[in-house]
Design a protein that fits this description.
By secondary structure, this protein is of the alpha/beta class. The protein has helices spanning 3-13, 17-20, 30-38, 57-71, 99-112, 120-134, 171-174, 178-185, 203-215, 258-274, 281-289, 291-295, 318-329, 348-353, 373-384, 394-405, 417-427, and strands at 48-52, 75-78, 90-92, 95-96, 139-143, 160-163, 195-197, 220-222, 231-235, 238-244, 247-251, 302-305, 309-313, 335-339, 359-362, 388-390, 410-414. An eight-stranded mixed beta sheet has the order 4-3-2-5-1-6-7-8, with helices on both faces. The longest helix has 17 residues, at 258-274.
């Protein structure tokens, strides 16, 4: 197979949650363990930081990876979903897995004739673990796909567990309350291994994590119970965090949610230092300042155009929009919003968080899981009083938005990771 044929095999022969939703979700670890055994348990060859949570997982994973790269470690990074190129999911020191390595892995899998039918995520997770082992990484940062307890990645035994925060998302798979979702995320906590909770607010959520840590004899730290910096302010080059234990830090990522992420990351790096890893203050400063260049991170309050200023962000649930909504509202009527969602998400509360005075263009990603733009427009009007045009094609919607906004306007593109992915794909980012 060539690379195109290999990717088509992965998308078509293995169910992909990102494309079709719940039908691809396979809770349980039996298949993952069978695949892992077939490849000789590659993840046992390097220490791992395992990251779960509702929001902030990607930014946290990439920043921790950037800090460790700045220290001189060879770092594997596994995240999902990808935006433009499948290979974004697995990187070593920011470099994506090669086309040839993807082909070789899939051909090896096909030749094995294993009596198993893995999901897309199960197979690609083992691909990442194997890639990192063959690349001889010093450490890997592994992001969960969905949940934690039954997530494919939970076959690992990490050096550190990190859970960023909890809010309602993927309720059909993880539960209808934040306590139930916290219980699923807490499933990554391992016996005797330290765990960092970024935001454990809410008595029920806090108690779930404390109980699980006690059960596993794991030392637990709640990042939001400590002061990791004295102040934060927005400057031309990013967010300036004054008075951290590493000195003043400028974070390249500027979304409002990054303030909470910063505390989680600093707490996690402190835990890694206590575990014996050498991580200098300079590496922390450099990692925060250059995370996008070091790791290839994209889509987090990312400026992708000028005249008009065009911003995209992958925030796609209530937890993400509690930060995006207020920041976007400050632009008033000069803001044009290009938004779309997936059809298996309850967007009613999210729509209520969106700016009331903005101009809207409702669109849909080119995937089976996308909510139809007409349905979204009807919901936006009935649930939140938001009105606008319906342009089902993302690229056309973006072009119209930029034209209507004019050179001095603001265009925001988001609502779904897949909307952002198509926008970035058009721009060749």
């Amino acid at each position: 197979m060539n690379y195109k044929e290999t990717i088509e095999f992965l998308y078509n022969a293995t169910p992909q949650f990102e494309r079709i939703g719940a039908a691809a979700y396979k809770p349980g670890l039996d298949t993952a363990r069978m695949l892992d055994d077939a490849w000789g348990n590659p993840h046992r060859n390097y220490p791992i930081v395992h990251v779960a949570g509702t929001n902030g997982k990607g930014s946290t994973c990439h920043t921790i990876a950037a800090i460790l790269q700045s220290q001189g470690y060879r770092v594997g990074l596994y995240t999902s979903p990808h935006l433009v190129d499948f290979r974004e999911r697995m990187r070593v020191n920011g470099n994506m897995i090669s086309h040839e390595e993807v082909i070789a892995f899939v051909e090896q899998y096909k030749k094995m004739n294993l009596n198993v039918s893995p999901s897309f995520f199960e197979l690609t997770t083992i691909m990442a673990f194997d890639f990192f082992a063959r690349s001889k990484v010093d450490i890997a940062i592994i992001e969960t796909g969905l949940g934690g307890r039954l997530d494919t990645t939970n076959i690992i035994d990490p050096r550190l567990c990190v859970i960023t925060n909890i809010s309602l998302d993927h309720t059909a798979q993880l539960g209808n309350t934040v306590e139930q979702i916290a219980g699923e995320k807490a499933g990554i906590i391992k016996s005797g291994k330290p765990v960092v909770i970024g935001n454990g607010s809410g008595e029920g959520v806090h108690d779930v994590f404390v109980a699980k840590a006690k059960e596993m004899c794991a030392n637990i730290t709640f990042a939001d119970e400590f002061k990791w910096f004295d102040s934060v302010e927005r400057i031309d080059t990013g967010l300036l965090y004054k008075g951290t234990y590493a000195g003043d830090i400028v974070g390249e990522l500027t979304g409002d949610c990054q303030v909470e992420n910063c505390a989680t990351i600093l707490c996690s790096i402190d835990a890694l230092r206590k575990s014996g890893m050498k991580i200098s203050d300079k590496s922390i400063i450099d990692g925060f300042a250059h995370v996008m260049n070091l790791t290839g991170l994209a889509g987090r309050w990312m400026k992708i155009g000028e005249n008009p200023t065009t911003i995209c962000d992958t925030g796609h649930n209530e937890g993400g929009w509690q930060y995006l909504g207020p920041r976007l509202s400050q632009y008033g009527a000069e803001l044009t919003m290009v938004v779309g969602f997936v059809k298996d998400k309850d967007v009613s509360h999210i729509l209520g968080m969106m700016p009331k005075n903005a101009n809207y263009i409702f669109t849909q990603a080119a995937i089976p899981r996308a909510m139809e733009a007409t349905e979204l427009a009807e919901l936006a009007t009935s649930e939140a009083g938001l009105k606008g045009k319906i342009i089902p094609d993302v690229v056309s919607a973006m072009d119209v938005a930029r034209l209507e906004a004019g050179e001095n306007g603001i265009v925001f593109i988001g609502g779904s990771t897949y909307i952002v992915a198509e926008a970035l794909g058009k721009l060749g980012v």
